[in-house]
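Deliverable D4.2, example record:
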Amino acid sequence: MEWSFKLHGGIAAGLSTVLLLLAVLTWLPGTLPLAGSKWPMVAIVVLLFPIFIAALVRMFLSGADRHSMWLAFRCLPGRLQAFLGALAISGIVLMLLSTASAGNWQAPEVKDGRYFVFDTTPHARGTIEVSHRQYEAVLESDQRSMLAIPGMLFTGAAYVVFASGELRRADVGFRSSQPVQV
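Output generated by the structure prediction step:
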């Protein structure tokens, strides 16, 4: 596999690992220090789109279908397969647990020292006041989702890049083994 595929896939897998670990840290008591600032989400978006779009471009340039991508993934080293599988499974579990624990409350905010959340319950939609404890629970659940979703997208990008790199390696090897016709 070419070094550019390894670098691209490694960066995507590394960022996925960091985001999913941060999402897990939201279960620790207290809120993450990142809760009040907007720069982490801006950094995630700025990194996510170029990495993910480049991964999709690499996939389309390989000309492979889903089955070929899966077969190429199966040709990757076992440790890499296990690592990407663990990232995907942990991202799915984080999202399921986050969705189950969040209930119908989202978008926590503080106004004049009071805590509010948006209630999405059918027929009772609107902003409601909650206790500080409930506010922190909704804040942590929102953080968990906002970290797990891009983490899973980075995992998908890593999968696509590594599988495309393996297909590229196989194609180059196949072409070099063919006799030259004159």
